[in-house]
């Protein structure tokens, strides 16, 4: 049975307990459910279905159990491992201390987004299918990279650090 990763948008310890999210996913019929960190990362097994179908199932279970749902982005765990193994960030000359993040989309933008895009110390470098590769150098103040991602791709996204993806790919 395939192993999937659900990346939920907008989850924090203030608005959802991980134990409650795990119960929602189990209630939706998913098995071997694990939550990671406190930011809406759920790894589970399910019969092969489309990402959209699994996301709808998870969102419906959250709405029923929690009284609210979080936008859900589904990827096969093997897809995340392949992305990590390919390490596409190596192709870019990143400055020392640069942080690597991946933003997940439901679909490839039409028309395609012309990349790279840079603002201050943030750069949207490339897209791989429905994943956007961004690097930034941490600086005090507003997270410029998040504003750049939102301006470019809208709010129908969720973003994870490279290190979080490593954890999701091996859970």
TrEMBL record:
<dbReference type="Pfam" id="PF08002">
    <property type="entry name" value="DUF1697"/>
</dbReference>
<protein>
    <submittedName>
        <fullName>DUF1697 domain-containing protein</fullName>
    </submittedName>
</protein>
<dbReference type="InterPro" id="IPR012545">
    <property type="entry name" value="DUF1697"/>
</dbReference>
